[in-house]
Amino acid sequence: MSQPTQNKTTSAFYAQAGISFGLALLAMVVAVLYLPVDPWMRAFLALGTLYLTTSAFTLAKCVRDAQETSSVVSRLDQARVDKILADHDPFRSVS
Asked: Taking 70 as the threshold, does the pLDDT of residue 5 lie above it?
């Protein structure tokens, strides 16, 4: 039986994702700092930016964990099917 192919993420994709995230967060922080508003409004926007950032990391971890779990379940199911097929002898007489 063929093994399921695993998607490998390239280092260039990791770099692009990290740089993109860093630039977006930096732009948001600079915008909050230089926004001509009262300090309490700036603090509210900064807190919102922090909350959005931590929520994005949490969501990414949850999605990754769900994908890994389904991958493990799929591999276990495939192993069970492989064992059943390996143990099956079509020429054995049924008694």
From this structure: no
